[in-house]
Amino acid sequence: MMKRRIILLAAVISVSACVVPVSAFAGATRVSGAIWAHGQLYDTVVTPATFIAPPEHSTDIIYSFMMSGLSGQRSVAEAAPGDRDFNGGRWDVQMAVFTAQGLMDHDPDGDGLVDFELTSAEEVEAHEQLGHIVINDANFYFECPLLPRRGR
């Protein structure tokens, strides 16, 4: 029961995978450069839309690093606008946490910030295979669109 609460809390925090302060949830807020997909940064618009179970239609995976042990790694989506199977910004949250080895490799100077960001689902999965990251299903689903970046 406690583990489920921790996972749910982490999932709620990961809604800020569209990473913004909680006060921004009062209205639609565009967030610049919030989510990586296929090596490209996307803006998003924070919405309060969450789902208890997966929607009838499919979702795509988004890796949240909010509880990863390091700062500076933005969320990474497996799909983006233009992908044949993109589901319009409906997400199945997967929590990515750096292992001890991952902390050493991604933050060798020990300042608590990633020295390089992972920018695609393939990179996240490759680093999971290397033992740098452990991925857990948050059993949490939400909606926020991916938008082309403004004013790069």
Write the layout of secondary structure elements.
Layout: H1 2-14, E1 29-37, E2 40-46, E3 50-51, E4 60-64, E5 75-77, E6 90-98, H2 100-106, H3 121-129, E7 133-143, E8 146-147
Parallel strand pairs: 1-5, 4-6
Antiparallel strand pairs: 1-2, 2-8, 3-7, 4-5, 6-7
Explain what this protein looks like in three dimensions:
This protein has one domain (2-147). With 152 residues, the protein is of the alpha+beta class. The protein is 19% helix and 32% strand. Residues 1-17 and 19-25 have low confidence and may be disordered. The radius of gyration is 15 Å and the shape is globular. The protein has helices at 2-14, 100-106, 121-129, and strands at 29-37, 40-46, 50-51, 60-64, 75-77, 90-98, 133-143, 146-147. It is built from 3 helices and 8 strands.
